[in-house]
Amino acid sequence: xxxxxxxxxxxxxxxxxxxxxxxxxxxxxxxxxxxxxxxxxxxxxxxxxxxxxxxxxxxxxxxxxxxxxxxxxxxxxxxxxxxxxxxxxxxxxxxxxxxxxxxxxxxxxxxxxxxxxxxxxxxxxxxxxxxxxxxxxxxxxxxxxxxxxxxxxxxxxxxxxxxxxxxxxxxxxxxxxxxxxxxxxxxxxxxxxxxxxxxxxxxxxxxxxxxxxxxxxxxxxxxxxxxxxxxxxxxxxxxxxxxxxxxxxxxxxxxxxxxxxxxxxxxxxxxxxxxxxxxxxxxxxxxxxxxxxxxxxxxxxxxxxxxxxxxxxxxxxxxxxxxxxxxxxxxxxxxxxxxxxxxxxxxxxxxxxxxxxxxxxxxxxxxxxxxxxxxxxxxxxxxxxxxxxxxxxxxxxxxxxxxxxxxxxxxxxxxxxxxxxxxxxxxxxxxxxxxxxxxxxxxxxxxxxxxxxxxxxxxxxxxxxxxxxxxxxxxxxxxxxxxxxxxxxxxxxxx
Amino acid sequence: xxxxxxxxxxxxxxxxxxxxxxxxxxxxxxxxxxxxxxxxxxxxxxxxxxxxxxxxxxxxxxxxxxxxxxxxxxxxxxxxxxxxxxxxxxxxxxxxxxxxxxxxxxxxxxxxxxxxxxxxxxxxxxxxxxxxxxxxxxxxxxxxxxxxxxxxxxxxxxxxxxxxxxxxxxxxxxxxxxxxxxxxxxxxxxxxxxxxxxxxxxxxxxxxxxxxxxxxxxxxxxxxxxxxxxxxxxxxxxxxxxxx
Lengths: 495, 244
Hints:
The complex is a heterodimer of chains A (about 500) and B (about 240).
Chain A: E1 3-13, E2 22-30, E3 34-39, H1 45-53, H2 55-58, E4 63-70, E5 73-74, E6 87-90, H3 94-97, H4 103-113, H5 118-131, H6 147-159, E7 165-169, H7 177-193, E8 197-201, E9 214-219, E10 222-228, H8 229-235, E11 251-265, E12 271-282, E13 285-290, H9 296-304, E14 311-316, E15 319-320, H10 326-330, E16 333-336, H11 349-353, H12 364-377, H13 393-405, E17 411-415, H14 423-438, E18 442-446, H15 450-456, E19 459-464, E20 467-473, H16 481-486
Parallel strand pairs in A: 3-8, 3-9, 6-7, 7-8, 13-18, 13-19, 16-17, 17-18
Antiparallel strand pairs in A: 1-2, 1-4, 4-5, 9-10, 11-12, 11-14, 14-15, 19-20
Chain B: H1 9-25, H2 29-47, H3 54-74, E1 80-84, E2 87-90, H4 93-117, H5 120-129, H6 134-137, H7 139-163, H8 171-201, H9 221-243
Antiparallel strand pairs in B: 1-2
Helix pairs in contact in B: 1-4, 1-9, 2-4, 3-4, 5-7, 7-8
């Protein structure tokens, strides 16, 4: 079969770095291959894709000893703006890549740069919209799209270019299981029907393995091995799900959170959530699941007082949340955001962890002890003076967790804390939450990963179309498979 | 009825410049009042309400009150009404303040109306027609696209600060919290601009000297005449102001 991508890299070194970021990679990808790339944090997965697009070294300056060839051409000789003839590249965060105001303009952006006639542009855009089933929102604003819609639009804007190779970096990291499965089905169709060579950096859902024919395993900047999917699954089998083996003790008498018919309507008229009746008992470890845009985050923001209910009331620790008492109530809660970078603003890890202790009436020695204890808990002891942005995303999430728990909150709310993290990093974050739960903290976790909900929480609530529709014990999840399939949260398979 | 949004951006720019230059040149309160009236009429014609001008109007009233105080304290037009120590109040302070307020209102509301009624891609096309390389001209719609994205980023940063006990509700709290919010915001802005520039480069941005546009701008005879009439009106007003 015809070779499409040929990589032979002895070393790729960034300026002022001693260690090579990529080394000893020899890989030959045939036309029509569907390759899944996997590996731990900072193993060089994204960088490998950057070398194929030639963004490294043209966009990210570095020295490469070796060659990368696409369709039998050395990418070093192709200007970056001509790479669209060879590869289409989709990065992790779709909102960062859309640069037009409307969906139609975004889909037409690449082909318009090719200086094609308006008739040809329209024909290509319409075909892609129909292929991805996005005809309905051609004139919508790109900043009003949901995560799944945005992913499809970015994919569409690349497909209009008709590149023979498609590179995707964790395309479903922030999507719910149904949207994620749908996107992979589209990719498989493109691969099959248009014979487009596809390379996908795999996220922890492993959905891509259903369609891939080979798996490249990266480790410390080198290609550890390239296996068939069967061999990979046999070798890296993870049948034993990571479980929360620590006890969860629930005090049925004490309410920590109570939502009494709470609703929130955004100023734009969009419904956030509707008529939510929900009680969280002391010590509960509750997981909230639901599709993208089902109202999970809005519900958390109502609880935390970041949004006011337009109807109904919110009670925290037995007290109705008002503008006057929210600051006091927040001292007893900790909120972990999906993106740790929203939360981190100090210039050292120690300063970040100790931020909430500023101005608190407690001895300097006591403050230092608390900081050191927290650093130890989140596994960052000895990193006191390191700048937070030098940490990996998983470590930054742990740092954010540390900055929350140092305040000893009774309730910890975590909004998709494992999204964008690999399996190992996710496990670290979840294990810390499980430890805190065993210490008696009440945990409210929003997640897209149903196995996280099943194996770490004791209770699961399901949101659908802005309403809370199911509430059951986590170990009874299998009994609710049919209901989850009906609301399209699952695709007819057990977890 | 003319759809203002569909007009060629060059007509809208000429009208906007006419408003601004006339407001700067004109010494007549009536003329400035007429210009402000025109802005209001256009707003009602295009939007069927004045909602879009509500926030700028509040800000202009605040600025207007400052203009009034400055003119009260430092204005020297008209006859002396009152004097005490260093403080002297002259009779012309109210008319000078109204004139200043009208000028600032016409300039700012005229510019806002132009920005709101002109598609950023049309501005880019206008710049390309003026031989600005499209790589630079396209920065206008790209900036317009990322403005709401950055506003949302700032809001999410403020939310995360609020939950850590840094209040971010009032204007003063926002100002106080700005240094802490700036670091993550700059970091996010850099990452977004990095991703966006790589993404557009890999979609052929800058490959040719020009690019296609979904709705190319084309000036009609009517629009050409409109531009000519606006220029004639401005020159007439200028001559009237200078010589009469």
